[in-house]
C-alpha cells in the first residue's frame, strides 16, 4: 500500500497538473461553451478513461521497459503533437460558430483520444504516480481511485467555466475570442511537444 507521504505527493501532483490548461481541459471548456454544462458532462467519463489507459501504459512502460526502447517516448510525443495541432486547427475554424449551434465542439471519442495522447499521462505515469502503483494491484487501484476522485471535479470545473462563457455570465469575455485563444494554446502546446521530441 502507499505511504501517507506518497499519497500526499500523488494528490498534490494530480491537482497541480490537472488544473493547468492543456488539450483535454481546453476541449472540456469548449464543450461546456458550445453544448452547455449538462450535455458536456459525459465527457468526464471519456477523460477518465483516456487517462486511466495512458497512465497505466506509461507507468508499466517506465517500470519495466524504458531501457529497451529509448526512442519510443519521442515518437509518441511527435504523434501527440500532430493530433493536438489538428485539434487546434479545428477549434480555430469552429470559433466563428455561435454557441447554441448544432455543431459540437467535441465528442467523447475526440476527448478520449486527445486525453490518451495528452503528455500529462506520461507525466503522471512516469513521475507523479509512485512506482509501487505499477507493481502491486492494491496500490494501483488505490492510486487510480485517488486520481478519479480528484480528476472528476476538476473536469467539471473546466466544463462549468466554458458553460459560464456560453451563457453570458462572464460577459466581459467573448466566446469566439476564448475559442481562438484556446486554439492558440493547443497550437503552442503542440509545438512544445515537437520541440521536446526533437531534443
Automatic annotation (TrEMBL):
Pfam families: LysE (PF01810). This is LysE family transporter. It comes from the Bacteria. It comes from Paraburkholderia antibiotica. GO terms for biological process: cysteine export across plasma membrane. It is a multi-pass membrane protein. GO terms for molecular function: amino acid transmembrane transporter activity. Keywords: Cell membrane, Membrane, Transmembrane, Transmembrane helix. One of its GO terms (cellular component) is plasma membrane. The chain crosses the membrane at residues 40-63, 75-98, 110-132, 139-161, 181-198. Signal peptide: none annotated. It is found in: Cell membrane.
Amino acid at each position: 500500500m502507499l505511504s501517507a507521504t506518497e499519497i500526499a505527493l500523488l494528490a498534490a501532483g494530480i491537482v497541480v497538473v490537472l488544473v493547468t490548461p492543456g488539450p483535454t481541459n481546453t476541449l472540456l471548456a469548449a464543450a461546456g461553451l458550445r453544448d452547455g454544462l449538462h450535455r458536456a458532462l459525459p465527457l468526464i467519463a471519456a477523460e477518465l478513461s483516456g487517462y486511466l489507459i495512458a497512465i497505466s501504459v506509461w507507468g508499466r512502460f517506465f517500470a519495466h521497459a524504458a531501457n529497451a526502447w529509448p526512442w519510443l517516448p519521442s515518437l509518441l510525443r511527435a504523434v501527440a503533437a500532430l493530433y493536438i495541432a489538428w485539434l487546434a486547427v479545428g477549434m480555430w475554424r469552429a470559433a466563428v460558430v455561435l454557441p447554441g449551434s448544432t455543431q459540437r465542439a467535441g465528442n467523447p471519442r475526440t476527448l478520449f483520444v486527445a486525453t490518451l495522447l495528452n503528455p500529462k499521462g506520461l507525466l503522471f505515469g512516469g513521475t507523479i504516480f509512485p512506482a509501487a502503483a505499477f507493481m502491486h494491484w492494491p496500490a494501483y487501484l488505490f492510486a487510480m481511485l485517488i486520481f478519479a476522485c480528484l480528476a472528476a471535479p476538476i473536469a467539471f470545473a473546466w466544463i462549468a467555466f466554458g458553460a459560464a462563457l456560453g451563457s453570458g455570465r462572464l460577459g466581459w469575455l467573448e466566446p469566439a475570442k476564448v475559442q481562438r485563444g484556446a486554439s492558440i494554446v493547443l497550437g503552442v502546446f503542440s509545438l512544445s511537444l515537437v520541440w521536446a521530441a526533437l531534443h
